[in-house]
Amino acid sequence: MTYYEPPQRTRPRRRSTLDSPWLAGLLVVVVLGLVGTLFVGPALFGSPSGTQTSVLPSSGVPTATAAGPSVAPTFSRPTPSPGPTFRTYRVQSGDSLNSIAKKFHTTGRSIAWWNRGAYPTLDPQSSKYDPNTIRVGWVLVVMPGTVVDDASPPSPSPGPTETPAVP
């Protein structure tokens, strides 16, 4: 017995966009252009800044050699972080040096040192020193988080020059 096999249907082949000779040629030109600018260009024309780097054999440190007029390399030190800054506090009813100091994470004696120029009763070196007497309305200079070393006290401040800032 012979079996009949139906003929196989073949699907028509879909055309790819790269089947076009124009598109394939354009793709080749773009790829060659990218390769040329990335790898061949710097070797032919030098680095973009006009300098080439080389390594000293003795130290392994890169140095710049100029392809034309150059400026000597400069080194600038990093800018230091700003130190703590003073804030002002206007004394309110019920305040004491110690309660103010607690708000600003410092000591009452430090507040006295910073304000001895404006308020003589706060001068720890004076015979009039009275840390328990502060008046409502006084504007005290305070440096949050800083404690004065009694062995090297700061110079007296002339008094507050800023507007009061209450935390």
Structure explained in plain terms:
- It is elongated, with a radius of gyration of 40 Å.
- The model has no long low-confidence stretch (mean pLDDT 76).
- It starts with 20 loop residues before the first helix and ends in a 25-residue tail after the last strand.
- It is built from three helices and four strands.
- Helices cover 24% and strands 11% of the residues.
- Helix 2 crosses helix 3.
- With 167 residues, it is of the alpha+beta class.
- The strands form two sheets. The protein has a two-stranded antiparallel ribbon. Strands 3-4 form a two-stranded antiparallel sheet.
- It has helices spanning 21-45, 97-103, 108-115, and strands spanning 51-55, 62-66, 87-90, 139-142.
Number of strands: 4
**Quaternary organisation of the protein chains:** single chain
Class computed from helices, strands and strand pairing? alpha+beta
Number of helical stretches of at least 4 residues: 3
Shape: elongated
Note the main attributes of this structure:
167 residues; alpha+beta; two-stranded antiparallel sheet; 4 strands
Can you lay out the helices and strands and say which pair or pack?
Blueprint: H1 21-45, E1 51-55, E2 62-66, E3 87-90, H2 97-103, H3 108-115, E4 139-142
Antiparallel strand pairs: 1-2, 3-4
Helix pairs in contact: 2-3
